[in-house]
Protein 1
Amino acid sequence: MDSGYPGLPKQRLKLKPQHQTSRSLEYGVQLLACFTAEQPARQISELADEVGLGRSTAHRYAKTLVALGYLEQDRQSRYRLALRAGRPGTAIVGTIRLEAPAARTILEDLREQTGHTVTLAALDGTHALYLQRFYAHGTGQFEADLQLGIGVRVPVYCTAIGKALLTSLTEAERRAVIASVTLEREGPNTVKTKRALTEQLAQAREEDVAICDEEQALGVRSIAAAIPHPGRSRPLAVSVTVPARLYTVEAMLARFAAPVRAAAKRI
């Protein structure tokens, strides 16, 4: 199932009976996760098939979510997410932001210094969750930004900011995340093996910056650094995204590695 954020792999519902959990609630949450930016409206038959429920059962859960204000129906009787469904995600983004109160000014300074879009993200399982994003508007920048905004989750294995976040983990934690990642092709240079990913992370730790060389998407390069401040609820990192046609990897490193490292240390 896709959460509506690019890069999140689809997953079949696999529930194990447990006395302490509510299966109905788990099915309800899984129904909400069926809606994506690519598929914002779903028929009940699609929802039932996606989650693995009978249509009458899926219909009952969907009607309950409508009554609670998390789903709504359009004129074709298709279901859509209601505005209320976005409130929990907005709340968690705001909560994590409070752990880096100086980030906004520092990110704006970094955008001014580099002339390119900058992002602050937190580690969320096998994804990076965008907390803040300040856009630049130079040649090719709109295309390089991929229309990704606050609240989006991107895979850790094919993004500079995701790899930077992984460098913040202990070796055991990093191995656990890598073991749970599914390597799917996103861009022309997406890493193909977990061994290669491990080698990239070793280099990123050594250089204190991680890079993305058209691994996330064609035409996109980025550079990121982990924010080296313990005590926060989860790892944070900052990145600069550039159009690949404007910079080689070497030019990107030469121009932006130092400012990205400096911004990460200040946040």
Protein 2
Amino acid sequence: MADNTARPADDAVGAAEAEDAPGPSEQARIAELVETLAREAAENKDKLLRTLAEMENLRRRTEREIGDARQYAIAAFARDVVAVADNMGRALDAVSSELRATADPGAQALIEGVELTERELLKALEKNGVRKFEPLGEKFDPNVHQAMFEVPDPSLPAGSVAQVVQPGYMIGDRVLRPALVSVAKGGPKAAAPASSANDNADAAREPDSAD
């Protein structure tokens, strides 16, 4: 009798569990929802990584632009200053060694003062990233040199700088002012020795021994 009274209760519990268990359509909907959430999470992660990369690139670009602004802000002022250095250099080049040797103490002091001022001016330019260069003997580079004329000099390779008319200046890794130079054409090719040429001509006129 006890078993007969308990059986209806067990059947009722089993029926309730059967009702609570998701059916095939409910399971498919849950799986689709999980897949959608996983895809959205992956897309959001990709967007986050792209945003972080763009922010890092922006930070680096901003730092570079700030550094360039600090380094090249004096470019216009530096061009005016190097013109003063040019004038000092021309003044000193005009003083010959004989004039230096025979100059009175006052003139000697003036020459030395100009030399000292030129050195201090170039030192101040270098301290601010402006560097003087004189490419004598180097291969001509149109990026940093400006050719004024050509010089037929057989002692120099063709295309090399034969003379520096005016020195150039760099500011950082940029050209502040190109160097004005003359470019060597290079000497003509050496002619064949006359004796060798005559020997070759005689050999060409000799009859073949087989004849």
Protein 3
Amino acid sequence: MTRALRRQVFELNDHLIAFYDGRNTLRLSPDPNWVDDAANKLGVATYAIHQGHDAIVFDTFPTIDQAQWQRSTLEAMGITHFTIVTSHWHNDHIAGNVVYQDSEIVMTARGLQFMTDLQADLEAGTTLFGPPAIDPVILPTRTYVGSTVLHVGTIELELRQINIHSPDETVIVLPADRFLLSGDTTEDTETFMVEYADLKIHADNLKEMKKWADFDRILPNHGDPERIAAGGYDKTFITATADYIENMIKGARKRGFLDAPLEDFAGKALRRCEVSLFEPYREVHEFNKAGVFPIWSNR
């Protein structure tokens, strides 16, 4: 049963738009699946930087229907030329690319490697994150390593690759606006862990990212829609994410780790309102603990 989900468009300034969907009880399917039970349940934001008839779109949503809503909204504004930047290879960031297969799609070279290696699994939808399948998987048409600069008219964007959450992660800095579009490097209430062995690297890289001097505000792909609509998070959001990761690494060696609640690892950030408690993230925390424990409990 397909139903329309709650959708919002936030005009953050005269050239930056956030699209937000999810955080509701409506489902695409009664069966367990990664769209309903992970991405849309937690809420998904994507972004567009536009000027004149051109737009750069940062991620394209977990479903074709959502991506078509995103594109149709932009086309109604007179935008006719799109460039897609894909933050990383995970399902909820690439599924909507099929709506933009007539456009240039930019990603890290590492991301293309992941997508090429995993294409058959992604299109089958039976392994990795499970159903629904992403068929066809639309691969990037342009890649970069390290960093690269793009323009939308007179607006400059810098794409930077950083190993946080996923080794192929791209974040975007808008230096004139002092915004960081953070992809999945930061997440409210807490990060969704996948690459467990790299968690120490992620925490260290978060601390380095916080030192970047060309942004003050952060716009994540998964976060509180009210915070995003109000202009995003400050740099304490990065500290909150790094602290949660480090607390999980340390906590894995302690008795009772697998029974410990979210507040034991993110309590300080919650009390300081650096992040907010969205109840479905308790399930994410349980998922994280199950992955962290086998790798970090004996280190």
